[in-house]
Specification:
Layout (H helix, E strand, L loop, with lengths): L2 E7 L3 E8 L2 E9 L17 E10 L4 E5 L6 E4 H4 L23 E8 L8 E3 L4 E2 L3 E4 L4 E4 L6 H17 L8 E4 L8 H22 L6 E4 L4 H9 L4 E6 L2 H14 L7 E3 L12 H7 L4 E3 L5 E6 L4 E6 L9 H23 L3 E6 L6 H15 L6 E3 L7 E6 L6 H5 E3 L8 E3 L1 H18 L5 E5 L1 H8 L3 H8 L6 E5 L8 E5 L2
Parallel strand pairs: 1-14, 6-8, 11-12, 14-15, 18-19, 24-25
Antiparallel strand pairs: 1-2, 2-3, 4-5, 4-7, 4-13, 5-6, 7-8, 9-10, 10-12, 16-17, 17-18, 19-21, 20-21, 22-23, 24-26
Helix pairs in contact: 4-5, 7-8, 10-11
């Protein structure tokens, strides 16, 4: 499968798109500007290791709240804190009060970003991901990715890692490892080097823990470019296009250290046009904010989320199959099932999901639909679980919720319409405006530009500080000023030559 990775570095956010066979399959966004005072600016929290202080222990909830120095305390469930308890078996489920005490300093890792009004989800069983293996300091043993299915290869990798942990002094004593899919066909020296790097990082974290004042972050996960190289690039990746020279250098530096075989795949994109124009990705992103997704047959699916769950309705629309209703329903359901997995990944939807397929009468047809649905999520990096179809044609599934869905990241409830609709946030509009500025500056080098936008958008941009203003000069070196237009709606803007 031909796979490309496109990395767009903008003045307001970094965007990473994965394209398989010329079709967008996954996309990630990371804001590099403050979002309403949210401490997540610059880098996401997911994967960070922090030294926090236990605020409250709630035995009734089997959980504790930990002060991380953020707007909201983090949530530590007992099952994620059991490595702190003195138990004969790591699988035992302890009471939370046996794991932590109020006022105690604990080392925890963010396993889920803050979502809506909820704080970050935490785990005391911290992990350090490398390119080939994941270090698990508080749990011994060797485990392998479920995607490594070849039994001889599983045995080979287990033997290699076990031997390294016993004989290599650079491997932390008593630690365990999870072998990643990227380790397939890797040599013993490659794996030993990865383990050595992780051992150095873990020793640095332990040293920092003894030096910092609680609460504090003792380990930041990699930034979006290096993280994409580590987690998103594999042997199927044919090309990595990046539209920023500094980011290209950063990607090549990481590749030289951890994955030299990928060095030749990294390229600077210099046009023509904009990077995301190559596969109409801008249009795809805009479509993610709409509930309806068209199917090739003429039918569609409608994706609607509530606090409790996400519902997906399947409609045949204008499609009719000459052989009868059952064939029409089957064809539409199969197209919908194949598209559902892609839409869940692109939209970042997690939690409980209920799919209302068109009724089918034949058991073999129902089995076909479930098989295609399973195949559509099999490559998803986020764990999913699918239940059988009910008598009403409903399929329940879950997808682990690890980040805000795109619609909540980009939009907010519209107060004038009594929360019945959503409008783009000021931050989202500002990011779109700044991308337009970068586009116009590239098309008209040497031209001083004026950006016209709604007053609240201009106020927000001008309030970001001097460092942000200096960063903007990289995209509009000839000069840029902002002008507020009182008659502009929030999502309305324009960029032209300075008069």
């Amino acid at each position: 499968m031909a796979s490309e990775v496109l990395i767009n570095i903008g003045p307001a956010e970094t965007r990473v798109a994965f394209v398989d066979n010329a079709r967008l399959s996954e996309i990630f966004f990371e804001r590099t500007i403050a979002d309403g005072g949210n401490a997540r600016a610059g880098h996401r929290l997911l994967g960070n290791i922090m030294l926090g202080r236990v605020q409250r222990v709630l035995p009734g909830m089997q959980a504790a709240f930990v002060d991380l120095g953020l707007e909201r305390a983090g949530f530590l469930a007992a099952r994620e804190a059991r490595c702190l308890a003195d138990l004969p078996s790591f699988t035992d489920q302890p009471c939370i009060s046996k794991c932590v005490r109020e006022g105690e300093a604990v080392l925890v890792q963010v396993i889920k970003d803050p979502i809506s009004e909820k704080g970050a989800r935490l785990s005391a069983n911290v992990t350090l991901p490398g390119r080939l293996v994941v270090l698990v300091p508080n749990q011994s043993g060797v485990a392998l990715s479920r995607r490594i299915e070849d039994e001889p290869e599983r045995a080979r990798l287990t033997e290699i890692v076990t031997e390294i942990t016993k004989t290599d002094p650079r491997a932390p004593a008593g630690a365990g490892y999870i072998v990643r899919t990227a380790a397939l066909s890797a040599t013993k020296d490659d794996i030993a080097s990865d383990i050595a790097r992780l051992g150095d990082e873990w020793r640095t974290i332990q040293a920092r823990r003894n030096m910092v004042k609680v609460p504090a972050t003792v380990y930041h996960d990699l930034d979006p470019v290096e993280r994409t190289m580590r987690d998103g690039v594999d042997e199927d990746t044919t090309r990595i296009l990046i539209d920023d020279a500094q980011a290209v250098a950063q990607a090549k530096s990481y590749a030289a250290r951890a994955m030299p075989e990928a060095l030749g795949k990294i390229h600077l994109f210099n046009g023509p046009g904009q990077l995301f124009d190559q596969y109409n990705i801008e249009g795809e992103i805009e479509a993610l904010l709409q509930p309806r997704v068209r199917l090739r047959s003429g039918g569609w699916i409608t994706v609607e989320s509530t606090e409790a769950l996400t519902s997906i309705d399947v409609n045949s629309g204008s499609y009719t199959e000459a052989t009868g209703l059952e064939e029409t329903s089957l064809r539409t359901n199969l197209e919908a099932a194949a598209e559902v997995g892609r839409q869940l990944r692109l939209r970042g939807i997690g939690g409980l999901i209920v799919i209302d397929f068109i009724h089918l009468g034949e058991p073999e047809n129902i089995a076909q639909v479930l098989t295609v649905l399973t195949e559509s999520v099999v490559l998803d990096r986020t764990p999913t679980q699918i239940l059988p179809m009910s008598a009403f044609g409903l399929v329940e599934m879950t997808r682990k919720r690890v980040r805000e869905p795109v619609v909540k990241l980009f939009t907010e409830h519209c107060d004038p319409c009594q929360a019945q609709g959503r409008i783009k946030t000021v931050v989202t509009v500002a990011a779109e405006l700044l991308r337009r500025v970068a586009r116009e500056a590239r098309a008209r080098p040497g031209t001083k530009l004026t950006a016209y936008a709604a007053p609240e958008v201009v106020r927000w941009i001008e309030g970001q500080g001097e460092e942000f203003s200096q960063n903007l000069r990289k995209y509009a070196a000839a000069g840029l000023r902002f002008e507020a237009r009182a008659n502009f709606a929030r999502d309305q803007f324009d960029v032209g030559a300075d008069q």
